[in-house]
Amino acid sequence: MLQKPVNEGAVEDVKQEITTSRRPWYHLNRTARILLLIYAVQLTLFGVLAWWVHVNPVLPIDVAITREFQENPASWLKITMIVISYPGSSLLLPAFVILAAAIFWRLGLRLEALCIVALSAVSAGLNALLKIIVERPRPRAGLVEIFQAASGQSFPSGHVMAYLAFWGLLFSFGIILFRGKAWWRILLLVVSALFVVLVGPSRIYLGDHWASDVLGSYLIGGVLLGIALWIYVQLKQRGVLETKSAKKEL
Asked: What is the pLDDT of residue 2?
């Protein structure tokens, strides 16, 4: 009989801690504008790279970079790279997306929850479309070691785009929406940053993608993340899906 009040009290405590960590909206708006400028440049670079790898599917520099990555045969490194890539190769990443969205929704951050789901879905669709357009084959065993074979086209990397859409958005929320040194904020930033940074090298090391695939994914994934953040800011300022408790926080 007492379990429900206890659970509700715990949720309220978490909400209160998040409330005290919220950034003022003028900080949010200013940060988002700076990010948008950076993402605009990335779109141009991505277009040039996509055309280049379409015309030249196998680049000598890609082969050289992969071989350099694979020079270290240490088992701990291979295991680490596999672990980093595993969520994107299984249902674990979609489960993370649903779980994160549910947590944000429960805390009253409903627009943020929908952004998490929507961005991951759009990223997956865009990645599939770009792979069809560019039609670049994956690395083959005759050129580099293939530790973990993958099917489909190579450019851009689906793992990198998916990680940027999910972990990159969580990292962005941690930076522009919250402040302070709460343990959950530090954990959110560290874990998200590690996945975003390490997924690219892991795809190269395992022989699933060329370095240019990974670079292109970071570029277009960053653009998509930037657009999502801009839309999010516009909707947030208009109070879309804002709960009563969230309005009080602002």
From this structure: 47
Neighbours of 59 (CB within 10 A): 14
Residue 110 falls inside a structural domain: yes
Provide φ and ψ at 22, rounded to 5°.
-70, 140
Q: What is the mean pLDDT of residues 201-224?
A: 93
How is residue 130 written in tokens?
Answer: 């770009």
Q: Which domain holds residue 202?
A: 22-249
> Using CA atoms in the order 93, 98, 99, 101, what is the torsion angle rounded to 10 degrees?
120
pLDDT (tens digit, 9 = 90+) per residue, 10-22?
A: 556 555 655 555 5
Residue tagged 């005759």 (tokens): 142
10, part of any domain: no
Residues written for the chain: 250
Is residue 33 assigned to a domain? yes
DSSP notation for 194-208? HHHHHHHHHHHHTTS
Taking residue 90's Cβ as centre, other Cβ atoms within 10 Å add up to 10
Kindly state the helix (H) or strand (E) to which residue 50 belongs, with its residue range: helix 25-55
| Residue 11 is assigned to a structural domain of this protein | no
